[in-house]
Write a structure and sequence with these properties.
The structure holds 2 protein chains of 2 kinds. By secondary structure, chain A is of the alpha/beta class. Chain A is built from 18 helices and 10 strands. The longest helix of chain A has 25 residues. Classes of the chains: A alpha/beta, B alpha/beta.
Chain lengths: ~425, ~450
């Protein structure tokens, strides 16, 4: 085994241990008295929660983990038996079904009931309904942070103040009440300083895909890389160490001129460089990934890895302005950007990462995120002159992943790119 | 003579097209995909090669100075007699398989079976007589329809068990159609066919002999369609049907900018540039609602032939509005409407409109309908579907030239063959053909 392989294993191993330890602590909340707060990935206020010593629980992460572990089909069926229609967001149904089936988390341990539901992002309207359902389930307090949408593509002072005021007047008091602890701004600042360090390294890793060959896959590999920072670990020392290690590993791959890791080991020749919009399918994640890697396609940039923060646009958590920085973070997530900003970002990715085209994976059960995707696709295509592809699947409902159809369309798209490259002749 | 072949392994039929050096279509072959792509591929290729020999034969007759009208009349008669010889060959295979079946050993089945097979053989002449109509060109369909009719007669007149006889046919037909006749068919049946003609002109005999002797070198092949992964071709020789349809439509109608293909299980909306290169496409995705199979299902529900649907729907006076294009719901929708007293023609017109509306949505998503617009696939043969499409295109996009080729079923195979030809021009082909052949491949 090469040195690089050993190092790769080190960061993965660390992430695994971090997750295992986190869920172990959650499972023992009843005994230890530790508090936990349910919240969502976009706009999560992890540093603030952790400054109250509260452990975050992220229902979307649990749902996608259930999808990857083959549990979501049964969970969704359980939710549908409860009366949730086929068209409801499958993350929601998977989560409700998991609760109905004993609330066992991804590591096989039971998740605690929430001490607080912190709805810290409102750009996805389903989140509101989801927590409404969970409030019924758990009969627990809810606090809502209304995050203004960047309708005009900018964050104004009034918007920032609006969020900061809510943090001060609603969110912090609710956290104080739920945890029995007083707000500690110094601790929050320390957490934020650690976040910024980890964010620097994450951005370096994601931008390493500008190299040719790219040492990473910024989508299929990317979802693992964003794990700690998008979920429960932002602001922790563990996250700082994880991203430092990860960066070292990627630096090594780069030095060795290696392409990304794929389900079948190191990737061979890099034949296509693509940008992807939309989340991956989780129930057939490996199969989906192989449809790319078998063709020599590397995802060099993706927007999904920005739903929990657009750090590559320059944003860093700033400990000197703790509440303002949290407000800016919430408003700057990819999901909170208006369509022109998304188009700008995608077109920029295609150009800066020297991509061959844009692929949209549109999610069947996510109406709010799928709206406008075709329009974005056309616009990016027009601006960059690179061919765009469109496929459809779902997050965690295996019924909506039609492998043959998706493969057929992906192959067609790759061949279309190739045909354009070669000016219409044979390969 | 160097040739390039494209093979389109579709869910319903498998098609092959043969091109010459000048990208001229010199042969076409089609067969049902019969859930066995390997055999379907062999049969379609063999048929395309036979068709190529007929093309060569026609050229030989021209060279011999035979006037076109006479040439065409000879070729028509010889073509029919050739099909008859092929049919007889396949009938002999069917007979052998049927009589070998364990269920055929008891006298109560064996005697009627032998009588049916004898009669099928006897009536072949009439089946392939000038002007005779056959429901299909596939052996399974022609033989099946005759066999079942004769089995009914045996049951009615001699008390044979119809179910048992039908069951024997079902067991035998798969094996029979999977025992394909080969590429040597032209040689084997060609002269026999000439011998069966009312008069057998010596110029024709000579031309057949010369056409048989032409060495057909397969310089390149490309495969496409749902079964393409089954082809023993190197990766380079497999192309997506989207690209093949785009290029094929461009070759048929060079002004094509938008292609709509409604096939058995998918619908494709494709935009191409002036060189036939695909610039954008959309396909039905999570569900096959509104594909050709929908009409097939409706035809079954109404106990009609697929080809009867369009003309019947064309007689509608007050088309009903139907929104659902779910194939499974279609039957319920149909019965509900009938029970409400709606006319069959009016319901059918509504169903046709529903599937074309779905295609319009795919077209819109792919970038709209540009001029010229080429419609391909099995549904392009349905007159009502075409007229609904025409009117919806006009309403939504204005006047567009709409191209429909009678050979549109070969669009994908033609595109594949063109890719094969271009691949050879780019320096790929012969060595890969050799490698594929060495690996036991078909080409």
């Amino acid at each position: 085994m090469s040195e690089a392989q050993v190092r790769k294993d080190r960061s993965q191993e660390r992430q695994k241990q971090m997750i295992a330890e986190h869920y172990r602590r959650l499972a023992r909340c009843g005994e230890t008295g530790e508090k936990n707060v349910y919240t969502y990935v976009p706009g999560n206020l992890t540093e603030l929660m952790r400054s109250f010593h509260a452990l975050p629980v992220l229902p979307e992460i649990n749902a996608l983990q259930s999808g990857m572990r083959g549990k979501s089909r049964d969970y969704i069926a359980a939710a549908e038996r409860d009366g949730h229609s086929e068209d409801v967001c499958t993350y929601v149904k998977c989560d409700i079904g998991m609760k109905r089936s004993g609330n066992v988390g991804p590591t096989g341990e039971r998740l605690p009931d929430p001490d607080l539901l912190l709805l810290s992002y409102t750009g996805c309207f389903t989140f509101l309904k989801w927590f409404e359902l969970l409030r019924e389930e758990y009969d627990c307090p809810v606090v809502m942070l209304h995050v203004p949408y960047q309708g005009d593509g900018v964050i104004t002072d009034a918007m920032r103040k609006y969020v900061v005021d809510q943090l001060r007047e609603k969110v912090i008091p609710a956290l104080e009440k739920a945890t029995g602890r007083a707000y500690d701004e110094d601790l929050l600042r320390e957490n934020l300083a650690r976040s910024a360090k980890a964010e620097d390294d994450l951005v370096w890793v994601l931008q390493s895909a500008r190299n040719r060959p790219s040492p990473i896959d910024a989508y299929f590999g990317g979802v693992y890389y964003i794990g700690p920072i998008f979920s429960a670990f932002r602001g922790t020392e563990d996250a700082v160490l994880y991203y430092r290690e990860l960066r070292e590993e990627i630096e090594e791959r780069l030095r060795l001129g290696k392409g990304p890791v794929t389900p079948d080991g190191d990737m061979g020749e890099e034949r296509f460089r693509v940008v992807v919009e939309g989340p991956p399918n989780w129930t057939s994640f490996r199969e989906f990934w192989k449809m790319f890697s078998d063709e020599g396609a590397v995802v060099v940039a993706s927007t999904y890895t920005k739903v929990g923060g657009t750090y590559d646009l320059g944003f860093r958590h700033d400990p000197s302005r703790p509440l303002e920085t949290l407000a800016e973070y919430c408003m700057g997530c990819y999901t909170n950007l208006n369509l022109p900003s998304r188009v700008d970002l995608l077109a920029r990715y295609v150009e800066e990462y020297a991509a061959d085209g844009l692929l949209v994976n549109s999610v069947k059960s996510c109406n709010s995120f799928s709206a406008g995707q075709l329009l974005m696709l056309r616009e990016v295509e027009k601006r960059t002159g690179k061919p765009a592809g469109f496929i459809e699947s779902d997050l965690v409902d295996p019924r909506y992943f039609s492998a043959a159809n998706i493969k057929n369309r992906l192959e067609s798209w790759f061949q279309m790119i190739e045909q354009k490259r070669s000016g219409g002749g044979g390969r | 003579m160097r040739t390039w072949t494209g093979i389109d392994l579709g869910s319903t039929t498998t098609k092959a097209v043969v091109l010459d050096e000048g990208a001229r279509i010199i042969g076409r072959g089609i067969t049902n995909s019969r859930s066995n792509y390997d055999v379907a591929c062999r049969v379609a290729l063999a048929e395309a090669v036979i068709n190529t020999r007929f093309f060569l034969l026609s050229a030989e007759l021209d060279r011999a100075g035979v006037p076109p009208a006479r040439r065409d009349s000879w070729l028509e008669e010889m073509g029919r007699r050739f099909r008859e010889q092929q049919y007889l060959g396949q009938l002999a295979v069917l007979r052998e398989i049927l009589l070998r079946l364990p269920g055929a050993s008891a006298p109560e089945e064996r005697h009627p079976l032998a009588r049916i097979l004898d009669r099928m053989r006897e009536e072949t002449d009439a089946l392939f007589a000038a002007g005779a109509e056959r429901k299909s060109d596939f052996f399974r369909d022609i033989a099946g329809s005759r066999y079942l009719r004769l089995a009914e007669e045996e049951a009615r007149e001699k008390g044979a068990r119809f179910d048992a006889l039908a069951g024997l046919f079902d067991k035998a037909i798969l094996d029979a159609e999977n025992t394909p006749t080969g590429e040597g068919d032209f040689e084997r049946y060609g002269m026999a066919a000439v011998g069966r003609m009312r008069t057998a002109p010596p110029e024709l005999r000579g031309a057949v002999e010369r056409a048989v002797r032409v060495d057909l070198e397969r310089a390149g092949s490309v495969g496409t369609g749902y079964g393409r992964a089954r082809l023993p071709f190197p990766r380079r020789q497999i192309r997506s049907e989207i690209l093949c349809h785009g290029l094929g439509a461009h070759a048929m109608f060079p002004g094509t900018r938008t292609v709509l293909d409604i096939g058995g299980q998918d619908t494709k909306a494709i935009q191409v540039d002036e060189a036939g290169i695909v610039t954008s496409f959309q396909m039905n995705d999570r569900c096959a609602a509104g594909c050709g199979r929908y009409l097939g299902y409706i035809a079954d529900e109404m106990n009609l032939g697929l080809h009867e649907l369009g003309p019947l729907a064309g007689q509608a006076t007050r088309p009903v509005r139907i929104n659902s294009t779910c194939t499974v719901f279609a039957g319920a929708e149909l019965r509900e409407r009938l029970s409400l007293g709606e006319q069959r023609e009016d319901i059918l017109a509504g169903l046709h409109r529903a599937i074309i509306l779905r295609a319009m949505s795919l077209l819109a998503r792919s970038g709209g309908v540009a001029d010229e617009f080429t419609f391909t696939g099995g549904v392009a043969r349905n007159s009502t579907a075409v007229s609904v499409l025409r009117s919806l295109v006009r309403d939504n996009y204005g006047e567009r030239r709409i191209n429909i080729s009678p050979d549109s079923i070969y669009t994908g195979a033609l595109g594949a063959a063109l890719f094969a030809l271009r691949g050879s021009a780019a320096g790929h082909g012969a060595e890969e053909e050799a490698a594929a052949s060495a690996a036991g491949g078909h080409p």
